[in-house]
Specification:
Blueprint: H1 8-32, H2 39-68, H3 80-109, E1 116-117, E2 120-121, H4 130-163, H5 168-172
Antiparallel strand pairs: 1-2
Helix pairs in contact: 1-2, 2-3, 3-4
The structure holds protoporphyrin IX containing FE (2 copies).
One protoporphyrin IX containing FE binds at residues 21, 24-25, 28-29, 32, 45, 48-49, 52-53, 55, 100-101, 104-105, 107-108, 115, 137, 140-141, 144.
């Protein structure tokens, strides 16, 4: 069917997560340059961690929802080889949306500070280990770069179809 759409739940989660993830990437880059020990840095780190863990929960809910309510088949404007690219990008986006908060959480667990989720301290299973903290910070940074590249590719794909007047694709994910 040409005009099949994503479910309203999938659309709402997509847009909430899209806004939150873009904000998280900007915040992550910004907060890293703030002076160590400053109140502003602490505030942003706490917000980043709580928002990131919320995103981890959302991606799990979203993934489960996807089995419950599978995405509609791609419209015919997306040709054979192109379909693989679109589906591949979507699968990689899911993978990175999961890896990103997990590496952030592991890195934080080796920082020596307790990770709080909107003010509630989480069980402190990690310990202070600057090497492991650095390693997972690096993985968190690299995965953020991969996620950003995928998002750019994803948005470029949507814009490509819109500027060819093929708006069906966008409408499937719009309210
Ligand atoms: C989808 C979720 C997330 C996104 C998109 C994201 C993105 C980023 C980005 C872009 C940076 C800057 C990297 C750099 O240039 O060094 C960063 C840093 C950081 N993030 Fe995240 N993050 C996410 C989740 C989390 C979570 C869940 C935690 C911890 C519970 C976390 C903890 C940190 C910390 C401590 C830093 C600063 C130091 C470091 O590089 O480790 N992040 N994040
Ligand atoms: C952080 C940013 C974003 C992420 C992580 C993201 C992620 C995703 C994922 C994983 C899907 C596949 C959904 C599924 O099949 O279950 C999807 C679909 C879609 N996204 Fe995004 N998205 C983001 C931003 C955007 C933006 C800014 C636009 C608009 C320009 C957009 C437009 C769409 C459209 C139109 C679809 C449906 C494609 C189709 O019909 O198959 N997304 N997105």
């Amino acid at each position: 069917m040409e005009n099949q759409r994503y479910s309203t739940t999938a659309i709402i989660i997509h847009w909430i997560m899209a806004i939150m993830i873009i904000a998280m990437i900007i915040m992550g880059v910004y907060m890293g340059d703030l002076p160590k020990g400053s109140d502003e840095r602490t505030w942003f780190f706490m917000l980043h961690k709580s928002m990131g863990l919320t995103l981890a929960l959302l991606v799990i809910i979203r993934f489960i929802w996807r089995f419950w309510s599978p995405p509609p088949a791609l419209p015919s404007i997306v040709s054979g080889a192109h379909q693989k690219l679109v589906k591949g990008t979507h699968h990689l986006l899911y993978l990175m949306m999961f890896i990103q908060p997990v590496t952030g959480y592991i890195s934080s667990s080796f920082s020596g500070y307790k990770t709080k989720f909107w003010g509630v301290p989480l069980p402190h299973w990690g310990w202070k280990n600057p090497d492991l903290n650095k390693l997972f910070s690096l993985i968190h940074e690299i995965s953020a770069i991969c996620l950003t590249i995928l998002i750019i590719l994803h948005i470029a794909g949507v814009i490509y179809h819109i500027q060819r007047k093929e708006t069906e694709l966008f409408k499937r994910m719009w309210f």
